[in-house]
């Protein structure tokens, strides 16, 4: 019975270690107009400012941990922009950082790494096209 409990605990911890996490924080500019939410599927993700006229609504910061898929990141971006009433997000930064644990003397090499998957930090400006 005890052996089964230990196997169950290690299985649960293995599943947790393989999980990814994506969080998005948005900040609306105090002087930005407010708009009702839009359909997330209509939100564009841009690498540069568009040629057509737009107003800037605010900023967003996305933190992805554990190696989530590109489609998961895209969906989180689209939902956050849509909630602000934006038509698009202009990405201004996209970085990956590898997290390593404290480098302390240890007899176990695996204890040096806390998270082998890189963290991804994405920043952007939320815009709405002038109609």
Which structural traits does this protein have?
single chain; 131 residues; alpha+beta; Translation Initiation Factor IF3; five-stranded mixed sheet; 5 strands; elongated
Tell me what the structure shows.
It is a single chain. With about 130 residues, the protein is an alpha+beta fold. It has a single domain (about 20-130), classed as Translation Initiation Factor IF3, CATH 3.30.110. Helices cover about 25% and strands about 40% of the residues. It contains two helices and five strands. The longest helix has 16 residues, at about 1-15. It starts with a helix and ends with a strand. The model is unreliable at about 10-15 and about 100-115 (pLDDT under 50).
| Number of distinct helices | 2
Let me know the largest β-sheet: 5 strands, mixed
Number of domains: 1
| Radius of gyration, in angstroms, nearest whole number | 20 Å
N-to-C SSE series?
Answer: HEEEHEE
Separation of termini? Answer: 67 Å
Q: Strand order of the main beta sheet, please?
A: 1-3-5-4-2
Helical percentage: 10-25%
Q: What characteristic shape results from the CA principal axes?
A: elongated
Residue fraction in strands: 35-45%
Second rung of CATH, namely the architecture: 2-Layer Sandwich
CATH secondary-structure class: Alpha Beta
Overall mean pLDDT: 80
* Helix/strand/pairing category: alpha+beta
- The strand count comes to 5
């Amino acid at each position: 019975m005890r052996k089964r409990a230990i196997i169950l605990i290690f299985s649960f911890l293995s599943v947790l270690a393989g999980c990814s996490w994506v969080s998005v924080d948005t900040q609306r500019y105090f002087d930005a107009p407010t708009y009702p939410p839009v359909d997330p599927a209509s939100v564009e993700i841009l690498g540069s400012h568009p040629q057509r006229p737009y107003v800037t609504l605010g900023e967003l910061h996305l933190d992805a941990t554990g190696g989530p898929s590109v489609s998961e990141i895209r969906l989180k971006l689209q939902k956050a922009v849509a909630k602000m009433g934006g038509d698009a997000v202009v990405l201004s930064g996209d970085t990956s950082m590898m997290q390593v644990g404290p480098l302390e003397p240890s007899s176990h090499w695996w204890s040096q790494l806390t998270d082998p998957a890189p963290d991804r930090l994405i920043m952007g400006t939320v815009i709405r096209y002038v109609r």
